[in-house]
Amino acid sequence: MPRRITGFTPSGDLHLGNYLGAMRPIIGPQHDADTVVFVSDLHALTLDHEPADVRRRTLEFATLLLAAGVDPDACLFMVQSHVPEHTELHYLLECVTGYGEAQRMIQFKEKSRRQEHIRTSLLTYPILMAADILLYDIDEVPVGEDQRQHVELARDLATRFNARYGETFTVPRAVNPAVAARVMDLSAPKEKMSKSTSSAAGALRLLDEPDQLRRKIMRAVTDAGTTVTYDPERSPGVANLLDILGGCTHHDPRDLAKTFDRYGELKTAVADAVVDTLAPIQERYRELAARPDHVRDVLRAGAGRARERAGETVRRTRAAIGLLPT
Ligand code: TYM
Fold it and tell me: What stretch of residues is annotated with the motif 'HIGH' region (predicted)?
């Protein structure tokens, strides 16, 4: 059975890109894989944040993941900060990471450009992400395209550590979904749909009301043309709508393009598909959100199981790198 992991950072609201890019790809095959799903709350501390927002969103994200179908009996499901082994391995991996290597990460360059005060944790965030992955002997990391470079770093660090200190880590690889690995912003279709930078009109939030979802899709930026073709370069807005439709309905966006004459028809089909995809998740979310104590019990049990597994990897790593056993 392949071992797989993915995480979601509770900064901003979860959107359709998160769902199609990572949530559905890890949840779908969860009964045929050894799966770890977690809320990466420590990653939300890398930019200025309100403590109460991070706490509220951590529970909201966990509730949404359960609503989207995470089966806590089949997966390891927890909050990152409840498993202190993540930060312990983070430090040990910092000791095999080059400073320049961390600085070269595209997301660090983009996010640090927007900050006046850059937190050191923003620079070292991909090393924490490598720790998340390497702790659980992961083979595959289903993520959207924007996280591919970080998974490459985890690969590099695992390979380097093994070569220098002896076989310790499994070397993981990123897997991107075939369609919708990079869902774009509806009002700025050259930018990715983002929790932190998309405007309210640009992102389809998982908890948006059906009316809001429809309105945003009907107002999505297309272009001056009239015929529907799949051309991400010249017609990124239309290609994005086709990707979203393809992602929701499991069809190839190029084939779908041939079935529409006008943009209006395409938008109506996209709106129907998105509302149909999200409605059952929203319904389960409302039921679960009424039982926060149940969600917290599930997370507590998950953290206990995760610590056992992660503790084993940390012991192995400490021994390999030269720390005296207690
Ligand atoms: P995060 O919270 O930014 O995003 C969660 C997942 O959603 C994917 N994603 C997208 N996919 C398609 N289109 C988009 N517009 C889009 N936007 C986001 C992301 O690629 C991601 O898979 N650092 C990670 C969380 C993390 C993690 C990990 C993931 C922490 N540790 C270990 C995998 C393994 C992050 O902040 O993702």
Answer: 10-18
